[in-house]
């Protein structure tokens, strides 16, 4: 929950604020835990020293270079303290500080605390103040090279791309990440984000189907790419079964004895949709049997943990199918009478 | 054919029963026994820490183990008289997250009148943006978590009419992805914690019909791993808190039975610390109060007989919401 930064992170030659002559004019303010504290605590000395002085400058609204330095110490002890970040911004603004320098400082803090909400937010505010996103793709790339699924870094990257229109080379970057780890769901999501921006033309849909198919050939049991493929077909406005080549590809895998639950789930979707559109009664029966068989395989062997889900799928499919049959029979009877 | 999955192994030695008394002790002593450093480090989320402890104990019907009076006093001191919002701790700035925690605690203690409720409503309304989204505080971070907090707070204090609900719904729906899930903002990756916020949001605002339940519930079911635990995103490890978020979302959508409850129970019980009490994020790790609440909450959703029924949307005991006459929408299949 909290970062495990150690109490000793301040430099070894560090002097407590209480002993500093240039801080002698400030009276530290202790944390008031009240008469009946919820929990009895004794703060560590260093922490107490820094935060007692922080409370003092906060109370007197002091905005000075030394106050800026003090926030740095306070954040080194606890980078998640949002109040310190906020006050730091107040000081930066009041003093008209060099914000490029601040970006460099944030780089360091982010590399120590890459999953900290506050520091990413601080970054965004400073980039907005500067109206200069030139370093954001590099920064997020470097964080993502350590953890390719870091949610904060992806959010920040999307924000920078969207706000400053930096879409142009993003597909190349995403392609590189997917090549490194084809299961990286965040990278697939980013791919979708970029494609959506440029629009799903028939050419794009065709290209992306091929892209996904090639990655599935590499690793079959990859949830991310199957979801991506479904999204491309769906958001492209085409119904899944309109792309016969996708069905042919899935059948090919299945015939080659691939039994990934994601493949079978996809096949079930395709067959259901195709079946409910099929005009020919015999073909419809055959597709219906196929759906039931595939679901049965999931229930009994390939996805036992979710067997109740598959039972639900097959049951509600049967209902739809029966309703369809009843309607068709009704129409036929109307026609002959 | 076996496929490789990121998962944990649960050894036979892990606990299989709920260590009820141990957890009561763990939560009641939380803070007293904590080392100072840990306590200092969590100051910025103290209000939520208290909510986690209070709710967990209430679900175990042991609420009297905490000192109600001092907790209420603490909350009163954390409300900002100008903005009306509540801070994590005295001396901090108010924030939507801690305002929700404070309101939840006061509802459990049945003493909402101890703070300036109109001020809370004013604070939440002030954070809504023209596109319907919400800032977390005056600094302008936007996230679907804050949309959830906003409607949850306002419903608990019976003031939902102070915001533009249709706009708020529009924003949340704009965060829905092709896989049926939701992220923190439009186009952000689907994430179980944020799905919980969005599904909870829609259940509070009576808009569950906007969900593609089949698709979303399927994505959520896919979060269950062979160990029985649930993860928050594809390829991530299982985690007790994600187990709660996924399970609560499925419960709201009436599809809890689509996953294996038995296996999930085994996973959650294996995350108990047999020495100190408390739950950790996953088998073998150190416990914390956050995962302790969500472990107990998930077990309650699964119908554990030693725990009170929890409300899946608010993560508070159901009787509290009944008393306040708050009905959240739940789909029955
Ligand atoms: Zn967790």
TrEMBL record, chain A:
<protein>
    <recommendedName>
        <fullName>Protein farnesyltransferase/geranylgeranyltransferase type-1 subunit alpha</fullName>
        <ecNumber>2.5.1.58</ecNumber>
        <ecNumber>2.5.1.59</ecNumber>
    </recommendedName>
</protein>
<dbReference type="GO" id="GO:0004660">
    <property type="term" value="F:protein farnesyltransferase activity"/>
</dbReference>
<keyword id="KW-0637">Prenyltransferase</keyword>
<dbReference type="GO" id="GO:0004662">
    <property type="term" value="F:CAAX-protein geranylgeranyltransferase activity"/>
</dbReference>
<dbReference type="Pfam" id="PF01239">
    <property type="entry name" value="PPTA"/>
</dbReference>
<dbReference type="GO" id="GO:0005953">
    <property type="term" value="C:CAAX-protein geranylgeranyltransferase complex"/>
</dbReference>
<comment type="similarity">
    <text>Belongs to the protein prenyltransferase subunit alpha family.</text>
</comment>
<keyword id="KW-0677">Repeat</keyword>
<keyword id="KW-0460">Magnesium</keyword>
<dbReference type="GO" id="GO:0005965">
    <property type="term" value="C:protein farnesyltransferase complex"/>
</dbReference>
<dbReference type="InterPro" id="IPR002088">
    <property type="entry name" value="Prenyl_trans_a"/>
</dbReference>
<keyword id="KW-0808">Transferase</keyword>
TrEMBL record, chain B:
<dbReference type="InterPro" id="IPR026873">
    <property type="entry name" value="Ptb1"/>
</dbReference>
<dbReference type="GO" id="GO:0004663">
    <property type="term" value="F:Rab geranylgeranyltransferase activity"/>
</dbReference>
<dbReference type="InterPro" id="IPR008930">
    <property type="entry name" value="Terpenoid_cyclase/PrenylTrfase"/>
</dbReference>
<keyword id="KW-0808">Transferase</keyword>
<comment type="function">
    <text>Catalyzes the transfer of a geranylgeranyl moiety from geranylgeranyl diphosphate to both cysteines of Rab proteins with the C-terminal sequence -XXCC, -XCXC and -CCXX, such as RAB1A, RAB3A, RAB5A and RAB7A.</text>
</comment>
<keyword id="KW-0479">Metal-binding</keyword>
<keyword id="KW-0597">Phosphoprotein</keyword>
<keyword id="KW-0637">Prenyltransferase</keyword>
<dbReference type="InterPro" id="IPR045089">
    <property type="entry name" value="PGGT1B-like"/>
</dbReference>
<dbReference type="InterPro" id="IPR001330">
    <property type="entry name" value="Prenyltrans"/>
</dbReference>
<dbReference type="GO" id="GO:0005968">
    <property type="term" value="C:Rab-protein geranylgeranyltransferase complex"/>
</dbReference>
<comment type="similarity">
    <text>Belongs to the protein prenyltransferase subunit beta family.</text>
</comment>
<feature type="domain" description="Prenyltransferase alpha-alpha toroid">
    <location>
        <begin position="19"/>
        <end position="316"/>
    </location>
</feature>
<comment type="subunit">
    <text>Heterotrimer composed of RABGGTA, RABGGTB and CHM; within this trimer, RABGGTA and RABGGTB form the catalytic component B, while CHM (component A) mediates peptide substrate binding. The Rab GGTase dimer (RGGT) interacts with CHM (component A) prior to Rab protein binding; the association is stabilized by geranylgeranyl pyrophosphate (GGpp). The CHM:RGGT:Rab complex is destabilized by GGpp. Interaction of RABGGTB with prenylated PTP4A2 precludes its association with RABGGTA and inhibits enzyme activity. Interacts with CHODL.</text>
</comment>
<dbReference type="Pfam" id="PF00432">
    <property type="entry name" value="Prenyltrans"/>
</dbReference>
<keyword id="KW-0862">Zinc</keyword>
<protein>
    <recommendedName>
        <fullName>Geranylgeranyl transferase type-2 subunit beta</fullName>
        <ecNumber>2.5.1.60</ecNumber>
    </recommendedName>
</protein>
<comment type="function">
    <text>Catalyzes the transfer of a geranylgeranyl moiety from geranylgeranyl diphosphate to both cysteines of proteins with the C-terminal sequence -XXCC, -XCXC and -CCXX.</text>
</comment>
<keyword id="KW-0677">Repeat</keyword>
<dbReference type="GO" id="GO:0046872">
    <property type="term" value="F:metal ion binding"/>
</dbReference>
């Amino acid at each position: 929950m909290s970062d495990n930064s150690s109490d000793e992170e301040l430099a070894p030659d560090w002097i407590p604020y209480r002993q500093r002559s240039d801080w002698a004019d400030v009276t530290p303010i202790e944390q008031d835990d009240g008469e009946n504290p919820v929990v009895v605590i004794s703060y560590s000395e260093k922490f107490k020293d820094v935060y007692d002085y922080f409370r003092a400058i906060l109370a007197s609204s002091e905005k000075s270079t030394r106050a800026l330095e003090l926030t740095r110490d306070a954040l080194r002890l606890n980078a998640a303290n949002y109040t310190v970040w906020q006050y730091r911004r107040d000081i930066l603004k009041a003093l008209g500080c060099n914000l490029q320098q601040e970006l460099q400082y944030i780089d360091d803090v982010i590399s120590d605390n890459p999953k900290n909400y506050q520091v990413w937010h601080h970054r965004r505010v400073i980039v907005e103040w500067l109206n200069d996103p030139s370093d954001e793709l590099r920064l997020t790339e470097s964080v993502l090279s350590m953890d390719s699924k870091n949610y904060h870094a992806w959010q920040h990257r999307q924000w920078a791309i969207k706000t400053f229109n930096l879409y142009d080379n993003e597909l190349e970057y995403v392609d590189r990440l997917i090549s490194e780890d084809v299961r990286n769901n965040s990278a697939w999501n980013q791919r979708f984000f970029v494609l959506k921006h440029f629009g799903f033309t028939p050419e794009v849909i065709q290209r992306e189907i091929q892209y996904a198919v090639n990655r599935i050939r590499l690793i079959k049991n990859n949830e991310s790419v199957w979801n991506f493929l479904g999204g491309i077909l769906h958001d492209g406005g085409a119904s899944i079964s309109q792309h016969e080549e996708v069905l042919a590809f899935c059948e090919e895998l299945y015939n080659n004895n691939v039994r990934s639950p994601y493949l079978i789930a996809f096949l079930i979707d395709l067959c259901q949709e195709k079946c409910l559109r099929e005009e020919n009664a015999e073909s419809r029966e055959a597709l219906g049997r196929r759906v039931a068989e595939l679901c049965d395989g999931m229930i009994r062997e390939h996805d036992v943990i979710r067997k109740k889900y598959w039972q639900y799928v097959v049951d509600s499919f049967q209902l739809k199918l029966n309703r369809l049959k009843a309607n068709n029979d009704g129409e036929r009877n109307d026609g002959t009478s | 054919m076996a496929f490789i999955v990121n998962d944990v192994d649960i050894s036979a030695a892990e606990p299989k029963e709920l260590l009820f008394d141990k957890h009561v002790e763990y939560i009641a002593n939380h803070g007293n026994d904590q080392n100072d450093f840990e306590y200092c480090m969590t100051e910025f989320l103290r209000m939520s820490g208290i909510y986690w402890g209070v709710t967990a104990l209430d679900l175990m019907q042991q609420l009297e183990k905490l000192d109600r009076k001092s907790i209420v006093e603490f909350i009163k001191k954390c409300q900002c008289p100008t903005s009306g919002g509540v801070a994590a701790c005295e001396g901090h700035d108010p924030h939507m997250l801690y305002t929700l925690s404070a309101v939840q605690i006061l509802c459990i203690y049945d003493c909402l009148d101890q703070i300036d409720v109109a001020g809370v409503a004013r604070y939440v309304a002030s954070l809504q943006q023209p596109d319907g989204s919400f800032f977390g505080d005056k600094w302008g971070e936007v996230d679907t978590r804050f949309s959830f907090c906003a409607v949850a707070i306002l419903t608990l204090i019976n003031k939902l009419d102070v915001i533009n609900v249709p706009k708020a719904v529009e924003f949340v729906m704009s965060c829905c992805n092709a896989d049926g899930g939701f992220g923190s903002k439009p186009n952000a990756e689907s994430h179980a914690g944020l799905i919980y916020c969005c599904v909870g949001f829609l259940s509070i605002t009576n808009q569950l019909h906007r969900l593609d339940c089949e698709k979303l519930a399927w994505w959520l079911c896919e979060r269950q791993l062979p160990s029985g635990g649930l993860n928050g995103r594809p390829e991530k490890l299982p985690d007790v808190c994600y187990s709660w978020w996924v399970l609560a979302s499925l419960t709201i959508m009436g599809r809890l039975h689509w996953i294996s409850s038995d296996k999930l129970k085994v996973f959650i019980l294996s995350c108990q610390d047999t020495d100190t009490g408390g739950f950790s994020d996953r088998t073998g790790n150190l416990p914390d109060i956050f995962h302790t609440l969500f472990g107990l909450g998930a077990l309650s959703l699964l119908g554990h007989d030693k725990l009170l029924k929890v409300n899946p949307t608010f993560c508070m005991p159901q009787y509290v919401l009944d008393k306040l006459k708050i009905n959240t929408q739940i789909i029955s299949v």
